[in-house]
Design goal:
- The protein is 86% helix and 0% strand.
- The chain contains 8 helices and no strands.
- It is globular and about 50 Å long.
- The chain starts with a helix and ends with a helix.
């Protein structure tokens, strides 16, 4: 099972890039005129993603990279995580209608983008040079650990994702589901009618013979 997970998992560096993409995309959805419910959902989603991501890097990625090539950028990574955690804690304590809420999101976004730039231009390429033979196994370890960390927080994750969807998006999703359901029902009905027609034709054919 572990070897299968290692083969199926992305490399740890690609998983880190995917985490970055997810968080940056959530930041881009955040607008000053976004409804408070959606702001809260986006912020909660961002906070949870950053908390889990930071812990995964500190437990798995940074120690492995430090063993082969400690450097100044890697030394800065943990303090940058601590700064991000402080902003996350501040954001979690604010109501989305509080004037400080938006500013804290923007401060968090700046800190995250700076951190992402350091990792993607320096740490990830270095890991791909120096840890090439270990990246898939490390990716599998990160996948297992992510599931352990998210399991107890699955309700929090589902709630934040639901709140982060705008009313229009929710209506569009509902409309799409309804349309798909209608098509499936129509297809079943049509198939049943065709089956009945074919059955009648075959039955009448047998009567003629």
């Amino acid at each position: 099972m572990a070897s299968m997970l290692s083969r199926m998992s992305p490399s740890i560096t690609n998983m880190i890039r995917m985490d970055h993409t997810h968080v940056v995309a959530a930041f881009h959805q955040f607008q000053a005129d976004t409804p408070a419910r959606v702001k809260k959902g986006l912020a909660d989603n961002i906070c949870l993603a950053l908390e889990v991501h930071a812990q995964l890097e500190e437990e798995i990625f940074y120690p492995a990279l430090r063993e082969v090539s400690p450097d100044e950028v890697l030394d800065r990574a943990k303090p940058e995580h601590d700064e991000i955690r402080q902003l996350v804690a501040r954001l979690r304590g604010l109501h989305p209608t509080d004037p400080a809420f938006d500013q804290t999101v923007y401060d968090l976004m700046r800190a995250v983008l700076h951190h992402v730039a350091d990792e993607e231009t320096q740490l990830l390429p270095k890991a791909e040079r120096l840890l090439a033979g270990q990246l898939s196994e490390m990716g599998a370890r990160m996948t297992r650990r992510r599931l352990e960390l998210l399991g107890p927080r699955s309700g929090e994750l589902a709630g934040s994702m639901a709140r982060s969807m705008s009313t229009g998006t929710l209506l569009a999703a509902a409309g799409t589901l309804a349309a798909v359901g209608g098509l499936l029902l129509a297809r079943r009905t049509g198939d049943s009618a065709n089956d009945a027609s074919r059955g009648g034709w075959l039955h009448s054919g047998r009567r003629r013979h």
